[in-house]
Write a structure and sequence with these properties.
By secondary structure, this protein is of the alpha/beta class. The chain is built from 15 helices and 7 strands.
Length: 356
């Protein structure tokens, strides 16, 4: 029953994003490498196997993509093996197990995403290029660079030289911080006369107070982020700024709902030549408010109102920004060495003591 319900839910989620205007159905394979599926008490590898999980993800993505003439992208991401200090050969072996499934299913292209370290991302691009498929790669970094101190612009150059067809950032930061990071990559690529398409798949959470590590350092992560969710109007602005910067792969990561993607698609409808199906019963820029019974609400039936609205949180005792944890741990630190067993009570107590 669990498998059936899970399959139905993932299929429906794909469909909602397809109706909202998505051109790509990405396989639901984030953190689906074998080493992650057996990390810290995770039993998914033993119960289902990484191969079966990746196969099911391909089946669902292709089924829905074919309903709307969309593409299918197979996705891989950073591994516990890299964080634990294992070498290139072992890390690439983890990537290959997923890629074998993607190639068997003839996905349209590959996405390497959510890499905190450009070195591991280069390793991922290298093995993906061996498949002959087009390769996109995203780092989960902001304008300050990767977690080993490599500047953001240099990261873009390294990925292009590794063979990536599309480079950019995803996750960890909000749309506007992410655009600053991609701009640094674009400038560095142009300076080195390197050709690569640009992409951006940010959070749907506003993160002006995040540190170098991004939103995972915020005290609200991951279960109290709702007050930071971007409005659909902020997504309109994001889409326009991204497009005007020359970015042509525009999407989203954590926190993105179908209505966010619909806002992106609506903002760029003229450039794309069509509106998504989800816009058929949806007035642009609040235009349907003209039917509202209250005159002050009817007065909001215009773009200029929603472009300039400043949403309140409704929480009078909450700060406007948070203080990031900033533990400063990355690959090489003993507490980032991963294990197959569950995190023990003793280990948790040690972490509770360290928490600021």
């Amino acid at each position: 029953m669990f498998r059936l319900i899970g399959t139905v839910n993932v299929r429906q989620l794909h469909r909602e994003f397809l109706r909202a205007g998505s051109d790509v159905m990405q396989t639901f394979t984030f953190y689906a490498s074998d080493d992650k599926l057996e990390n810290r008490g995770n039993t998914a590898q033993a119960t289902f196997s990484g191969k079966n999980i990746n196969q099911a993800a391909c089946d669902l993505a292709r089924e829905v993509a074919d309903e709307g003439n969309a593409l299918v992208a197979g996705g891989i991401c950073q591994t516990p093996s890299y964080l634990s200090g294992k070498g290139k050969e072992e890390v690439q072996a983890e990537f290959r197990k997923q890629l074998d499934v993607f190639i068997e299913n003839n996905v349209d292209f590959l996405i390497c995403e959510y890499f905190e370290h450009v070195e591991e991302a280069e390793w991922a691009v290298e093995v993906c290029k061996q498949t002959g498929k087009a390769v996109a790669v995203n780092l989960c970094i902001g304008p300050e660079g990767d977690m080993h101190g490599v500047p953001t612009g240099e990261c873009g150059v390294k990925l292009a030289r590794a063979g990536a067809d599309i480079v950019g950032v995803n996750c960890h930061f909000d749309p506007f911080v992410s655009l600053k990071a991609v701009r640094l990559m674009k400038e560095a690529l142009e300076k080195e006369d390197l050709k690569a398409h640009l992409m951006v798949q940010p959070l749907a959470y506003l993160t002006p107070d995040a540190s170098k590590q991004g939103f995972i350092d915020l005290p609200e992560f991951p279960f109290a982020l709702e007050s930071r969710v971007c409005t659909r109007w902020e997504m309109h602005r994001f889409a326009r700024e991204a497009y005007d910067m020359g970015i042509r792969y525009i999407g989203g990561c954590c926190g993105f709902e179908p209505y966010h993607i619909r806002a992106v698609a609506e903002e760029l409808a003229a450039e794309r030549g069509w509106f998504p199906k989800a816009s058929q019963k949806h007035g642009q820029w609040g235009s349907e408010l003209k039917m509202h019974t209250k005159p002050w609400v009817r007065a909001r039936a215009r773009r200029s109102y929603w472009e300039n609205v400043k949403p309140a949180s409704g929480r009078p005792y909450c700060p406007s920004m948070s203080k990031p944890d900033q533990w400063g741990m990355t690959k090489g630190h003993k507490r980032l060495v991963q294990q197959s067993g569950e995190t023990s009570e003793k280990e948790l107590k040690e972490l509770f003591t360290l928490q600021k």
